[in-house]
Amino acid sequence: MKRFRPGGVGWFIFRRLLLGIVVLILVSVLVFLATQALPGDPARAILGRTATPASLAALRRQLHLDQPVISQYWTWVTGLLHGNLGRSLAAQEPVSTLIGPRLVNSAVLVALAAVVSIPLSIAIGSWAAFRREKVFDVASSNLLLVLAALPEFVVGVLLVILLATTVSHVLPSISLVPPGSHPWDNWSALVLPTLTLVIAVAPYVARIMRASMIEVLESDYVEMARLKGLPERTVLVRHALPNALGPVFQVIALNLAYLAGGIIIVESVFQYTGIGLAIQESVVNHDLPVIQALTMLIAAVYVALNLLADVATIMVTPRLRTRL
Amino acid sequence: MTQVSDPLIPGVELTPTPARGASLLRRSLRLWRTRIGVALVGLLVLVAIIGPYIAPYGPSTPVGVPNANPGGKAVLGTDYLGQDVLSRFLYGGRSILIMAVLATALGLIAGVAIGLVAAYSRNALDDVLMRGMDVIMAFPQIMLGLVAVAIIGPHAWVIVVAIALTTAPRIARVARGAAQPIVERDFIAASEAMGVPRWRIVSAELLPNTLGPLMVEASLRLTYSIAVIAALAFLGLSPDPNGANWGTMIQENQLVLAIQPWGALAPIIAIALLTIGTGLIGDGIARTAAGIDRARGEE
Q: N or C: which end of chain B has fewer CB within 10 A?
Protein backbone atom coordinates (compact mmCIF):
# COMPACT_ATOMS: atom_id res chain seq x y z
CA MET A 1 0.00 0.00 0.00
CA LYS A 2 1.32 3.41 -0.94
CA ARG A 3 2.05 6.22 1.46
CA PHE A 4 -0.91 8.55 2.04
CA ARG A 5 -0.43 11.76 0.06
CA PRO A 6 -1.99 15.01 1.28
CA GLY A 7 -4.60 16.12 -1.22
CA GLY A 8 -4.96 12.57 -2.52
CA VAL A 9 -8.72 12.82 -2.75
CA GLY A 10 -8.58 16.03 -4.78
CA TRP A 11 -6.03 14.48 -7.13
CA PHE A 12 -8.22 11.37 -7.48
CA ILE A 13 -11.30 13.44 -8.34
CA PHE A 14 -9.29 15.50 -10.80
CA ARG A 15 -7.98 12.36 -12.53
CA ARG A 16 -11.45 10.81 -12.70
CA LEU A 17 -12.87 14.06 -14.07
CA LEU A 18 -10.19 14.20 -16.75
CA LEU A 19 -10.87 10.57 -17.65
CA GLY A 20 -14.60 11.31 -17.85
CA ILE A 21 -13.95 14.19 -20.24
CA VAL A 22 -11.71 12.02 -22.42
CA VAL A 23 -14.42 9.34 -22.53
CA LEU A 24 -17.04 11.95 -23.50
CA ILE A 25 -14.81 13.31 -26.29
CA LEU A 26 -14.34 9.78 -27.65
CA VAL A 27 -18.09 9.18 -27.34
CA SER A 28 -18.78 12.36 -29.30
CA VAL A 29 -16.38 11.25 -32.08
CA LEU A 30 -18.07 7.84 -32.15
CA VAL A 31 -21.59 9.31 -32.22
CA PHE A 32 -20.57 11.78 -34.90
CA LEU A 33 -18.87 9.21 -37.11
CA ALA A 34 -21.68 6.69 -36.68
CA THR A 35 -24.50 9.08 -37.48
CA GLN A 36 -22.84 11.45 -39.90
CA ALA A 37 -19.93 9.97 -41.76
CA LEU A 38 -20.40 6.21 -42.02
CA PRO A 39 -23.68 5.41 -43.76
CA GLY A 40 -22.95 6.90 -47.20
CA ASP A 41 -25.02 9.99 -47.88
CA PRO A 42 -27.19 11.10 -44.94
CA ALA A 43 -29.02 13.58 -47.18
CA ARG A 44 -30.22 10.72 -49.36
CA ALA A 45 -30.99 8.59 -46.31
CA ILE A 46 -33.12 11.41 -44.94
CA LEU A 47 -34.90 12.44 -48.14
CA GLY A 48 -35.25 8.97 -49.65
CA ARG A 49 -34.58 7.63 -53.14
CA THR A 50 -37.01 9.96 -54.88
CA ALA A 51 -35.24 13.18 -53.80
CA THR A 52 -34.24 15.66 -56.52
CA PRO A 53 -30.54 16.60 -56.88
CA ALA A 54 -31.40 20.21 -55.94
CA SER A 55 -33.04 19.30 -52.64
CA LEU A 56 -30.21 16.90 -51.89
CA ALA A 57 -27.65 19.66 -52.44
CA ALA A 58 -29.66 22.09 -50.29
CA LEU A 59 -29.89 19.61 -47.43
CA ARG A 60 -26.18 18.81 -47.71
CA ARG A 61 -25.43 22.53 -47.34
CA GLN A 62 -27.82 22.78 -44.39
CA LEU A 63 -26.10 19.83 -42.68
CA HIS A 64 -22.63 21.25 -43.58
CA LEU A 65 -21.98 18.04 -45.53
CA ASP A 66 -20.11 20.00 -48.22
CA GLN A 67 -17.29 20.68 -45.74
CA PRO A 68 -14.46 18.32 -44.68
CA VAL A 69 -15.35 15.80 -41.97
CA ILE A 70 -13.13 17.39 -39.31
CA SER A 71 -14.67 20.84 -39.69
CA GLN A 72 -18.14 19.25 -39.70
CA TYR A 73 -17.28 17.59 -36.39
CA TRP A 74 -15.91 20.88 -35.01
CA THR A 75 -19.08 22.78 -35.99
CA TRP A 76 -21.21 20.12 -34.34
CA VAL A 77 -19.22 19.86 -31.10
CA THR A 78 -18.85 23.63 -30.57
CA GLY A 79 -22.58 23.92 -31.26
CA LEU A 80 -23.27 21.27 -28.59
CA LEU A 81 -21.14 23.13 -26.05
CA HIS A 82 -23.05 26.34 -26.77
CA GLY A 83 -26.36 24.59 -26.29
CA ASN A 84 -27.08 24.46 -30.01
CA LEU A 85 -28.20 20.87 -30.45
CA GLY A 86 -29.17 21.18 -34.10
CA ARG A 87 -32.56 21.12 -35.81
CA SER A 88 -34.95 18.21 -35.74
CA LEU A 89 -35.59 17.00 -39.28
CA ALA A 90 -39.01 15.58 -38.47
CA ALA A 91 -40.40 18.40 -36.32
CA GLN A 92 -38.56 21.23 -38.15
CA GLU A 93 -37.68 23.01 -34.92
CA PRO A 94 -34.54 23.26 -32.77
CA VAL A 95 -33.79 20.04 -30.90
CA SER A 96 -33.46 21.99 -27.64
CA THR A 97 -37.06 23.31 -27.75
CA LEU A 98 -38.21 19.83 -28.72
CA ILE A 99 -36.54 17.99 -25.85
CA GLY A 100 -36.60 20.73 -23.17
CA PRO A 101 -40.04 19.93 -21.67
CA ARG A 102 -39.48 16.19 -22.21
CA LEU A 103 -36.25 16.41 -20.25
CA VAL A 104 -38.22 17.81 -17.31
CA ASN A 105 -40.79 15.01 -17.60
CA SER A 106 -38.11 12.33 -17.65
CA ALA A 107 -36.22 13.94 -14.77
CA VAL A 108 -39.42 13.90 -12.70
CA LEU A 109 -39.95 10.22 -13.48
CA VAL A 110 -36.34 9.21 -12.71
CA ALA A 111 -36.23 11.33 -9.54
CA LEU A 112 -39.48 9.81 -8.32
CA ALA A 113 -38.22 6.30 -9.04
CA ALA A 114 -34.97 7.06 -7.19
CA VAL A 115 -36.72 8.61 -4.18
CA VAL A 116 -38.98 5.57 -3.84
CA SER A 117 -36.52 2.80 -4.70
CA ILE A 118 -33.40 3.85 -2.74
CA PRO A 119 -34.87 4.01 0.81
CA LEU A 120 -37.08 1.00 0.04
CA SER A 121 -34.21 -1.18 -1.15
CA ILE A 122 -31.92 -0.06 1.69
CA ALA A 123 -34.66 -0.97 4.17
CA ILE A 124 -35.32 -4.37 2.55
CA GLY A 125 -31.61 -5.20 2.31
CA SER A 126 -30.87 -4.16 5.90
CA TRP A 127 -33.84 -5.99 7.34
CA ALA A 128 -32.97 -9.14 5.36
CA ALA A 129 -29.40 -8.98 6.70
CA PHE A 130 -30.60 -8.39 10.24
CA ARG A 131 -33.00 -11.35 10.05
CA ARG A 132 -30.54 -13.44 8.10
CA GLU A 133 -31.87 -16.82 6.90
CA LYS A 134 -35.24 -16.16 8.55
CA VAL A 135 -38.51 -16.10 6.63
CA PHE A 136 -38.28 -12.46 5.51
CA ASP A 137 -34.72 -12.89 4.21
CA VAL A 138 -35.44 -16.07 2.27
CA ALA A 139 -38.70 -14.73 0.82
CA SER A 140 -37.31 -11.32 -0.15
CA SER A 141 -34.07 -12.75 -1.60
CA ASN A 142 -35.95 -15.16 -3.84
CA LEU A 143 -38.50 -12.55 -4.90
CA LEU A 144 -35.75 -10.03 -5.70
CA LEU A 145 -33.85 -12.66 -7.71
CA VAL A 146 -36.95 -13.26 -9.85
CA LEU A 147 -37.75 -9.54 -10.22
CA ALA A 148 -34.15 -8.73 -11.16
CA ALA A 149 -34.35 -11.17 -14.07
CA LEU A 150 -37.49 -9.67 -15.60
CA PRO A 151 -37.05 -7.18 -18.49
CA GLU A 152 -38.64 -3.75 -17.86
CA PHE A 153 -41.24 -4.02 -20.60
CA VAL A 154 -42.38 -7.38 -19.23
CA VAL A 155 -42.80 -5.83 -15.78
CA GLY A 156 -44.55 -2.80 -17.30
CA VAL A 157 -47.07 -4.76 -19.35
CA LEU A 158 -47.67 -7.18 -16.45
CA LEU A 159 -48.49 -4.18 -14.24
CA VAL A 160 -50.87 -2.90 -16.92
CA ILE A 161 -52.59 -6.29 -16.95
CA LEU A 162 -52.81 -6.39 -13.15
CA LEU A 163 -53.71 -2.79 -12.36
CA ALA A 164 -54.91 -1.04 -15.48
CA THR A 165 -56.86 -3.46 -17.68
CA THR A 166 -57.62 -7.12 -17.32
CA VAL A 167 -57.50 -7.94 -13.61
CA SER A 168 -58.43 -4.59 -12.12
CA HIS A 169 -58.75 -1.09 -13.48
CA VAL A 170 -57.53 1.29 -10.81
CA LEU A 171 -54.81 3.13 -12.75
CA PRO A 172 -54.46 4.51 -16.29
CA SER A 173 -52.50 2.30 -18.71
CA ILE A 174 -51.33 5.30 -20.79
CA SER A 175 -49.34 8.11 -19.19
CA LEU A 176 -49.18 10.77 -21.92
CA VAL A 177 -48.13 14.19 -20.65
CA PRO A 178 -49.96 16.63 -22.94
CA PRO A 179 -47.90 19.64 -24.13
CA GLY A 180 -48.13 22.56 -21.71
CA SER A 181 -48.99 20.38 -18.72
CA HIS A 182 -46.69 18.91 -16.09
CA PRO A 183 -46.33 15.27 -15.06
CA TRP A 184 -47.39 16.09 -11.49
CA ASP A 185 -50.72 17.50 -12.74
CA ASN A 186 -51.89 13.92 -13.18
CA TRP A 187 -50.21 11.91 -10.47
CA SER A 188 -52.12 8.68 -11.09
CA ALA A 189 -50.49 8.48 -14.53
CA LEU A 190 -47.07 8.53 -12.85
CA VAL A 191 -47.71 5.52 -10.62
CA LEU A 192 -47.21 2.67 -13.09
CA PRO A 193 -44.10 4.04 -14.88
CA THR A 194 -42.51 4.81 -11.50
CA LEU A 195 -43.40 1.40 -10.12
CA THR A 196 -41.88 -0.31 -13.19
CA LEU A 197 -38.60 1.59 -12.77
CA VAL A 198 -38.56 0.84 -9.04
CA ILE A 199 -38.97 -2.88 -9.73
CA ALA A 200 -36.19 -2.68 -12.32
CA VAL A 201 -33.69 -1.06 -9.93
CA ALA A 202 -34.55 -1.97 -6.34
CA PRO A 203 -33.50 -5.68 -6.49
CA TYR A 204 -29.87 -4.82 -7.27
CA VAL A 205 -29.53 -2.18 -4.58
CA ALA A 206 -31.28 -4.38 -2.00
CA ARG A 207 -29.00 -7.35 -2.74
CA ILE A 208 -25.82 -5.28 -2.36
CA MET A 209 -27.23 -3.65 0.77
CA ARG A 210 -27.90 -7.09 2.27
CA ALA A 211 -24.40 -8.37 1.49
CA SER A 212 -22.76 -5.22 2.80
CA MET A 213 -24.87 -5.18 5.96
CA ILE A 214 -24.08 -8.84 6.70
CA GLU A 215 -20.37 -8.09 6.47
CA VAL A 216 -20.70 -5.10 8.82
CA LEU A 217 -22.85 -6.98 11.33
CA GLU A 218 -20.14 -9.63 11.60
CA SER A 219 -17.42 -7.03 12.21
CA ASP A 220 -15.60 -6.47 15.49
CA TYR A 221 -16.84 -2.93 16.08
CA VAL A 222 -20.48 -3.99 15.89
CA GLU A 223 -19.69 -6.80 18.33
CA MET A 224 -17.98 -4.21 20.54
CA ALA A 225 -20.97 -1.86 20.40
CA ARG A 226 -23.23 -4.74 21.44
CA LEU A 227 -20.91 -5.77 24.27
CA LYS A 228 -20.93 -2.18 25.55
CA GLY A 229 -24.63 -2.81 26.14
CA LEU A 230 -25.95 -0.36 23.55
CA PRO A 231 -29.56 -0.97 22.57
CA GLU A 232 -29.84 -3.05 19.37
CA ARG A 233 -31.58 -0.12 17.62
CA THR A 234 -28.62 2.17 18.25
CA VAL A 235 -26.17 -0.49 17.12
CA LEU A 236 -28.02 -0.90 13.84
CA VAL A 237 -28.83 2.72 13.03
CA ARG A 238 -25.75 4.50 14.41
CA HIS A 239 -22.97 1.94 13.98
CA ALA A 240 -23.88 -0.59 11.30
CA LEU A 241 -25.95 1.35 8.75
CA PRO A 242 -23.49 4.20 7.94
CA ASN A 243 -20.67 1.73 7.39
CA ALA A 244 -22.76 -0.61 5.29
CA LEU A 245 -23.83 2.20 2.95
CA GLY A 246 -20.35 2.63 1.39
CA PRO A 247 -20.48 -0.04 -1.31
CA VAL A 248 -24.16 0.71 -1.86
CA PHE A 249 -23.49 4.25 -3.11
CA GLN A 250 -21.71 2.93 -6.15
CA VAL A 251 -24.53 0.54 -6.97
CA ILE A 252 -27.11 3.31 -6.50
CA ALA A 253 -25.28 5.60 -8.91
CA LEU A 254 -24.83 2.76 -11.40
CA ASN A 255 -28.53 2.03 -11.20
CA LEU A 256 -29.47 5.67 -11.68
CA ALA A 257 -27.29 5.55 -14.78
CA TYR A 258 -29.14 2.39 -15.75
CA LEU A 259 -32.43 4.27 -15.38
CA ALA A 260 -31.22 6.61 -18.14
CA GLY A 261 -31.47 3.61 -20.47
CA GLY A 262 -34.46 2.05 -18.74
CA ILE A 263 -36.66 5.07 -19.45
CA ILE A 264 -36.41 4.34 -23.18
CA ILE A 265 -38.40 1.15 -22.65
CA VAL A 266 -40.63 2.25 -19.79
CA GLU A 267 -41.68 5.50 -21.48
CA SER A 268 -42.52 3.54 -24.61
CA VAL A 269 -44.66 1.05 -22.68
CA PHE A 270 -46.72 3.82 -21.09
CA GLN A 271 -46.37 6.41 -23.90
CA TYR A 272 -44.95 8.74 -21.23
CA THR A 273 -43.83 11.94 -22.99
CA GLY A 274 -40.14 12.04 -22.03
CA ILE A 275 -36.75 11.78 -23.71
CA GLY A 276 -36.92 7.98 -23.76
CA LEU A 277 -39.98 8.13 -25.97
CA ALA A 278 -38.25 10.89 -27.99
CA ILE A 279 -35.33 8.55 -28.72
CA GLN A 280 -37.66 5.78 -29.86
CA GLU A 281 -39.58 8.22 -32.08
CA SER A 282 -36.41 9.72 -33.54
CA VAL A 283 -35.14 6.24 -34.39
CA VAL A 284 -38.40 5.38 -36.15
CA ASN A 285 -38.32 8.76 -38.01
CA HIS A 286 -34.57 8.56 -38.84
CA ASP A 287 -34.23 11.98 -37.19
CA LEU A 288 -30.42 12.03 -36.94
CA PRO A 289 -29.88 15.39 -35.15
CA VAL A 290 -32.26 14.33 -32.37
CA ILE A 291 -30.58 10.90 -32.11
CA GLN A 292 -27.14 12.57 -31.89
CA ALA A 293 -28.22 15.06 -29.24
CA LEU A 294 -30.01 12.52 -27.07
CA THR A 295 -27.22 9.95 -27.37
CA MET A 296 -24.69 12.55 -26.21
CA LEU A 297 -27.02 13.65 -23.42
CA ILE A 298 -27.55 10.15 -22.08
CA ALA A 299 -23.85 9.31 -22.40
CA ALA A 300 -23.00 12.48 -20.44
CA VAL A 301 -25.47 11.59 -17.69
CA TYR A 302 -24.07 8.06 -17.63
CA VAL A 303 -20.43 9.20 -17.35
CA ALA A 304 -21.32 11.85 -14.73
CA LEU A 305 -23.18 9.35 -12.55
CA ASN A 306 -20.34 6.83 -12.77
CA LEU A 307 -17.92 9.58 -11.74
CA LEU A 308 -20.20 10.49 -8.86
CA ALA A 309 -20.33 6.83 -7.83
CA ASP A 310 -16.53 6.60 -7.63
CA VAL A 311 -16.17 9.87 -5.73
CA ALA A 312 -19.01 9.02 -3.31
CA THR A 313 -17.50 5.61 -2.62
CA ILE A 314 -14.15 7.21 -1.80
CA MET A 315 -15.84 9.81 0.40
CA VAL A 316 -17.81 7.35 2.52
CA THR A 317 -15.05 4.74 2.76
CA PRO A 318 -12.10 6.53 4.40
CA ARG A 319 -9.84 3.47 4.32
CA LEU A 320 -9.92 3.48 0.48
CA ARG A 321 -8.31 6.93 0.46
CA THR A 322 -5.00 5.56 1.62
CA ARG A 323 -4.75 3.50 -1.53
CA LEU A 324 -5.07 6.40 -3.97
CA MET B 1 -30.23 -19.44 1.76
CA THR B 2 -28.69 -22.25 3.74
CA GLN B 3 -27.51 -24.09 0.64
CA VAL B 4 -24.38 -21.94 0.30
CA SER B 5 -22.48 -23.40 3.16
CA ASP B 6 -24.18 -26.77 3.67
CA PRO B 7 -23.03 -29.12 0.95
CA LEU B 8 -19.87 -27.29 0.04
CA ILE B 9 -17.75 -26.41 3.00
CA PRO B 10 -17.40 -29.54 5.12
CA GLY B 11 -15.91 -32.69 3.67
CA VAL B 12 -15.70 -31.57 0.10
CA GLU B 13 -12.66 -32.83 -1.76
CA LEU B 14 -10.90 -29.69 -2.90
CA THR B 15 -8.58 -29.86 -5.85
CA PRO B 16 -5.52 -27.59 -5.66
CA THR B 17 -6.41 -25.80 -8.91
CA PRO B 18 -9.54 -23.64 -9.03
CA ALA B 19 -12.73 -25.36 -10.12
CA ARG B 20 -12.79 -25.75 -13.90
CA GLY B 21 -15.90 -24.91 -15.87
CA ALA B 22 -17.47 -28.35 -16.12
CA SER B 23 -16.98 -29.27 -12.46
CA LEU B 24 -18.36 -25.89 -11.33
CA LEU B 25 -21.45 -26.52 -13.45
CA ARG B 26 -21.89 -30.00 -12.04
CA ARG B 27 -21.54 -28.75 -8.47
CA SER B 28 -23.95 -25.89 -9.04
CA LEU B 29 -26.57 -28.45 -10.12
CA ARG B 30 -26.73 -29.61 -6.50
CA LEU B 31 -28.64 -26.41 -5.75
CA TRP B 32 -32.36 -26.42 -6.37
CA ARG B 33 -32.31 -22.96 -7.88
CA THR B 34 -29.92 -24.10 -10.62
CA ARG B 35 -32.08 -27.16 -11.33
CA ILE B 36 -35.24 -25.04 -11.59
CA GLY B 37 -33.37 -22.59 -13.84
CA VAL B 38 -32.14 -25.37 -16.13
CA ALA B 39 -35.66 -26.85 -16.27
CA LEU B 40 -37.23 -23.47 -17.17
CA VAL B 41 -34.64 -22.66 -19.84
CA GLY B 42 -34.88 -26.21 -21.21
CA LEU B 43 -38.67 -25.95 -21.46
CA LEU B 44 -38.57 -22.63 -23.32
CA VAL B 45 -35.77 -23.77 -25.63
CA LEU B 46 -37.86 -26.85 -26.41
CA VAL B 47 -40.87 -24.64 -27.19
CA ALA B 48 -38.72 -22.48 -29.46
CA ILE B 49 -37.21 -25.45 -31.29
CA ILE B 50 -40.17 -27.79 -31.80
CA GLY B 51 -42.89 -25.11 -31.59
CA PRO B 52 -43.03 -24.40 -35.33
CA TYR B 53 -43.47 -28.15 -36.05
CA ILE B 54 -46.44 -28.60 -33.70
CA ALA B 55 -48.17 -25.27 -34.30
CA PRO B 56 -51.76 -25.85 -35.49
CA TYR B 57 -51.63 -22.97 -38.00
CA GLY B 58 -49.02 -20.84 -39.75
CA PRO B 59 -47.74 -17.75 -37.92
CA SER B 60 -49.59 -15.36 -40.26
CA THR B 61 -52.64 -17.42 -41.18
CA PRO B 62 -55.91 -15.65 -40.39
CA VAL B 63 -58.11 -18.16 -38.52
CA GLY B 64 -61.06 -16.07 -37.32
CA VAL B 65 -62.30 -12.68 -36.20
CA PRO B 66 -59.73 -10.45 -34.49
CA ASN B 67 -59.40 -10.56 -30.68
CA ALA B 68 -61.55 -13.67 -30.25
CA ASN B 69 -61.38 -15.18 -26.79
CA PRO B 70 -59.86 -18.63 -26.24
CA GLY B 71 -61.99 -21.55 -27.39
CA GLY B 72 -63.06 -23.29 -30.57
CA LYS B 73 -60.41 -23.48 -33.28
CA ALA B 74 -57.97 -21.14 -31.51
CA VAL B 75 -56.90 -22.53 -28.12
CA LEU B 76 -55.54 -19.19 -26.90
CA GLY B 77 -57.87 -17.07 -29.03
CA THR B 78 -56.88 -14.80 -31.91
CA ASP B 79 -54.75 -11.67 -31.97
CA TYR B 80 -55.50 -8.13 -33.20
CA LEU B 81 -55.40 -9.35 -36.84
CA GLY B 82 -57.31 -12.59 -36.29
CA GLN B 83 -54.17 -14.78 -36.31
CA ASP B 84 -53.92 -17.77 -33.98
CA VAL B 85 -52.18 -16.68 -30.74
CA LEU B 86 -50.96 -20.20 -29.90
CA SER B 87 -49.34 -20.67 -33.31
CA ARG B 88 -47.62 -17.28 -33.21
CA PHE B 89 -46.47 -18.06 -29.69
CA LEU B 90 -44.96 -21.38 -30.81
CA TYR B 91 -43.18 -19.70 -33.74
CA GLY B 92 -42.12 -16.60 -31.79
CA GLY B 93 -39.26 -17.82 -29.61
CA ARG B 94 -36.81 -19.10 -32.17
CA SER B 95 -35.42 -15.85 -33.55
CA ILE B 96 -35.05 -14.21 -30.12
CA LEU B 97 -33.21 -17.23 -28.71
CA ILE B 98 -30.88 -17.66 -31.69
CA MET B 99 -30.00 -13.96 -31.77
CA ALA B 100 -29.50 -13.75 -27.99
CA VAL B 101 -27.23 -16.82 -27.88
CA LEU B 102 -25.19 -15.63 -30.89
CA ALA B 103 -24.83 -12.10 -29.51
CA THR B 104 -23.80 -13.34 -26.05
CA ALA B 105 -21.31 -15.85 -27.51
CA LEU B 106 -19.73 -13.20 -29.76
CA GLY B 107 -19.54 -10.70 -26.91
CA LEU B 108 -18.13 -13.37 -24.61
CA ILE B 109 -15.33 -14.34 -27.01
CA ALA B 110 -14.37 -10.71 -27.73
CA GLY B 111 -14.68 -9.63 -24.10
CA VAL B 112 -12.63 -12.54 -22.72
CA ALA B 113 -9.88 -11.96 -25.29
CA ILE B 114 -9.73 -8.21 -24.55
CA GLY B 115 -9.93 -8.61 -20.77
CA LEU B 116 -7.26 -11.32 -20.54
CA VAL B 117 -4.87 -9.55 -22.90
CA ALA B 118 -5.35 -6.30 -20.93
CA ALA B 119 -4.65 -8.04 -17.62
CA TYR B 120 -1.65 -9.91 -18.99
CA SER B 121 -0.05 -6.95 -20.76
CA ARG B 122 0.33 -4.88 -17.56
CA ASN B 123 1.33 -1.82 -19.63
CA ALA B 124 -0.17 0.99 -21.72
CA LEU B 125 -2.13 -1.54 -23.78
CA ASP B 126 -4.14 -2.33 -20.64
CA ASP B 127 -5.17 1.32 -20.29
CA VAL B 128 -5.95 1.75 -23.97
CA LEU B 129 -8.11 -1.38 -24.11
CA MET B 130 -10.03 -0.69 -20.90
CA ARG B 131 -10.64 3.02 -21.70
CA GLY B 132 -11.95 1.88 -25.07
CA MET B 133 -14.35 -0.41 -23.19
CA ASP B 134 -15.39 2.57 -21.03
CA VAL B 135 -16.38 4.48 -24.16
CA ILE B 136 -18.69 1.69 -25.30
CA MET B 137 -20.07 1.37 -21.77
CA ALA B 138 -20.99 5.06 -21.79
CA PHE B 139 -24.09 4.02 -23.77
CA PRO B 140 -26.91 2.05 -22.22
CA GLN B 141 -27.23 -1.29 -24.07
CA ILE B 142 -30.67 -0.59 -25.49
CA MET B 143 -29.52 2.83 -26.72
CA LEU B 144 -26.62 1.43 -28.75
CA GLY B 145 -28.96 -1.18 -30.20
CA LEU B 146 -31.48 1.50 -31.16
CA VAL B 147 -28.84 3.75 -32.76
CA ALA B 148 -27.28 0.88 -34.72
CA VAL B 149 -30.67 -0.21 -36.01
CA ALA B 150 -31.59 3.42 -36.83
CA ILE B 151 -28.45 3.93 -38.91
CA ILE B 152 -27.94 0.59 -40.64
CA GLY B 153 -31.40 -0.97 -40.54
CA PRO B 154 -33.20 -3.64 -38.53
CA HIS B 155 -31.26 -6.61 -39.93
CA ALA B 156 -30.67 -9.61 -37.68
CA TRP B 157 -26.87 -9.26 -37.95
CA VAL B 158 -26.99 -5.57 -36.94
CA ILE B 159 -28.91 -6.45 -33.77
CA VAL B 160 -26.57 -9.37 -32.98
CA VAL B 161 -23.41 -7.28 -33.53
CA ALA B 162 -24.79 -4.31 -31.56
CA ILE B 163 -25.70 -6.49 -28.57
CA ALA B 164 -22.36 -8.33 -28.79
CA LEU B 165 -20.59 -4.95 -28.85
CA THR B 166 -22.33 -3.86 -25.65
CA THR B 167 -21.77 -7.26 -24.03
CA ALA B 168 -18.02 -7.40 -24.69
CA PRO B 169 -16.86 -4.52 -22.42
CA ARG B 170 -18.83 -5.82 -19.46
CA ILE B 171 -17.32 -9.30 -19.93
CA ALA B 172 -13.88 -7.75 -20.47
CA ARG B 173 -14.07 -5.97 -17.10
CA VAL B 174 -14.88 -9.20 -15.29
CA ALA B 175 -12.22 -11.19 -17.18
CA ARG B 176 -9.57 -8.58 -16.44
CA GLY B 177 -10.57 -8.34 -12.79
CA ALA B 178 -10.43 -12.12 -12.37
CA ALA B 179 -7.14 -12.46 -14.27
CA GLN B 180 -5.23 -9.66 -12.51
CA PRO B 181 -4.42 -11.57 -9.31
CA ILE B 182 -3.55 -14.69 -11.36
CA VAL B 183 -1.05 -12.76 -13.51
CA GLU B 184 0.98 -11.98 -10.38
CA ARG B 185 1.19 -15.64 -9.35
CA ASP B 186 4.40 -17.61 -9.56
CA PHE B 187 3.27 -20.20 -12.07
CA ILE B 188 2.79 -17.48 -14.69
CA ALA B 189 6.33 -16.23 -14.09
CA ALA B 190 7.50 -19.85 -14.29
CA SER B 191 5.75 -20.38 -17.62
CA GLU B 192 7.33 -17.19 -18.95
CA ALA B 193 10.75 -18.34 -17.80
CA MET B 194 10.24 -21.69 -19.55
CA GLY B 195 9.57 -19.81 -22.77
CA VAL B 196 5.90 -20.74 -23.16
CA PRO B 197 4.46 -18.51 -25.94
CA ARG B 198 2.34 -15.61 -24.67
CA TRP B 199 -0.85 -16.69 -26.44
CA ARG B 200 -0.51 -20.08 -24.74
CA ILE B 201 -0.09 -18.50 -21.31
CA VAL B 202 -3.23 -16.42 -21.88
CA SER B 203 -5.31 -19.29 -23.26
CA ALA B 204 -4.01 -22.24 -21.24
CA GLU B 205 -3.01 -20.66 -17.89
CA LEU B 206 -5.10 -17.51 -17.46
CA LEU B 207 -8.39 -18.53 -19.10
CA PRO B 208 -9.07 -21.72 -17.07
CA ASN B 209 -8.42 -19.83 -13.84
CA THR B 210 -11.01 -17.15 -14.59
CA LEU B 211 -13.87 -19.44 -15.67
CA GLY B 212 -15.88 -19.16 -12.43
CA PRO B 213 -16.62 -15.41 -12.50
CA LEU B 214 -16.88 -15.54 -16.30
CA MET B 215 -19.63 -18.16 -16.23
CA VAL B 216 -21.61 -16.08 -13.74
CA GLU B 217 -21.19 -12.98 -15.88
CA ALA B 218 -22.01 -14.88 -19.08
CA SER B 219 -25.34 -16.11 -17.72
CA LEU B 220 -26.15 -12.58 -16.52
CA ARG B 221 -25.28 -11.24 -19.98
CA LEU B 222 -27.45 -13.88 -21.67
CA THR B 223 -30.35 -12.72 -19.50
CA TYR B 224 -29.75 -9.13 -20.62
CA SER B 225 -29.29 -10.08 -24.28
CA ILE B 226 -32.66 -11.84 -24.30
CA ALA B 227 -34.23 -8.81 -22.60
CA VAL B 228 -32.69 -6.25 -24.97
CA ILE B 229 -33.45 -8.19 -28.15
CA ALA B 230 -37.04 -8.78 -27.05
CA ALA B 231 -37.25 -5.10 -26.04
CA LEU B 232 -36.04 -3.97 -29.47
CA ALA B 233 -38.77 -6.10 -31.05
CA PHE B 234 -41.22 -4.61 -28.56
CA LEU B 235 -40.16 -1.13 -29.76
CA GLY B 236 -40.96 -2.22 -33.32
CA LEU B 237 -37.36 -2.97 -34.36
CA SER B 238 -37.00 -6.60 -35.38
CA PRO B 239 -35.73 -8.17 -38.62
CA ASP B 240 -39.28 -9.07 -39.63
CA PRO B 241 -41.68 -6.37 -38.36
CA ASN B 242 -44.82 -8.49 -38.91
CA GLY B 243 -43.26 -11.85 -38.12
CA ALA B 244 -44.06 -13.98 -35.12
CA ASN B 245 -41.72 -12.80 -32.34
CA TRP B 246 -42.53 -12.71 -28.62
CA GLY B 247 -41.45 -9.05 -28.31
CA THR B 248 -43.44 -8.00 -31.38
CA MET B 249 -46.50 -9.92 -30.15
CA ILE B 250 -46.52 -8.02 -26.85
CA GLN B 251 -46.37 -4.69 -28.66
CA GLU B 252 -49.08 -5.65 -31.19
CA ASN B 253 -51.53 -6.85 -28.58
CA GLN B 254 -50.78 -4.41 -25.77
CA LEU B 255 -53.61 -2.10 -26.80
CA VAL B 256 -56.24 -4.85 -26.79
CA LEU B 257 -55.29 -6.23 -23.37
CA ALA B 258 -58.70 -5.34 -21.98
CA ILE B 259 -60.49 -7.41 -24.65
CA GLN B 260 -58.14 -10.38 -25.23
CA PRO B 261 -55.15 -10.56 -22.86
CA TRP B 262 -53.63 -13.81 -24.17
CA GLY B 263 -52.02 -12.26 -27.25
CA ALA B 264 -49.66 -10.32 -24.99
CA LEU B 265 -49.79 -12.53 -21.90
CA ALA B 266 -48.52 -15.75 -23.53
CA PRO B 267 -45.26 -14.19 -24.85
CA ILE B 268 -44.84 -12.23 -21.59
CA ILE B 269 -44.96 -15.45 -19.59
CA ALA B 270 -42.49 -17.06 -22.01
CA ILE B 271 -39.94 -14.22 -21.80
CA ALA B 272 -40.38 -13.96 -18.03
CA LEU B 273 -39.80 -17.70 -17.47
CA LEU B 274 -36.81 -17.67 -19.83
CA THR B 275 -35.05 -14.74 -18.14
CA ILE B 276 -35.93 -16.03 -14.66
CA GLY B 277 -34.41 -19.37 -15.73
CA THR B 278 -31.12 -17.86 -16.93
CA GLY B 279 -31.08 -15.65 -13.81
CA LEU B 280 -31.48 -18.67 -11.51
CA ILE B 281 -28.72 -20.57 -13.31
CA GLY B 282 -26.38 -17.58 -12.93
CA ASP B 283 -27.22 -17.26 -9.24
CA GLY B 284 -26.67 -20.98 -8.71
CA ILE B 285 -23.22 -20.85 -10.34
CA ALA B 286 -22.34 -17.68 -8.39
CA ARG B 287 -23.30 -19.29 -5.08
CA THR B 288 -21.36 -22.45 -5.89
CA ALA B 289 -18.26 -20.47 -6.91
CA ALA B 290 -18.50 -18.32 -3.76
CA GLY B 291 -18.87 -21.45 -1.62
CA ILE B 292 -15.77 -23.00 -3.21
CA ASP B 293 -13.79 -19.79 -2.66
CA ARG B 294 -14.88 -19.59 0.95
CA ALA B 295 -13.93 -23.23 1.59
CA ARG B 296 -10.51 -22.65 0.06
CA GLY B 297 -9.99 -19.52 2.16
CA GLU B 298 -10.59 -21.55 5.33
CA GLU B 299 -8.07 -24.24 4.47
A: C
